[in-house]
Amino acid sequence: MDYLTNIKLSEFQSEVKTSISLIGNLKESLEDEKLSSFLSQNGIKKSNAIEIVIFLPIAFVRKMLPNVNWPENYIEQLSDKKQRTKSFAENGFYKIIKKETDNYYAGKAESEVILKIAGRSAEFKVINDLLFKNEKADISKIKLTENIIIRNE
Question: Which of 2, 3, 85, 146 is the most buried (most CB within 10 A)?
Answer without folding.
Answer: 146
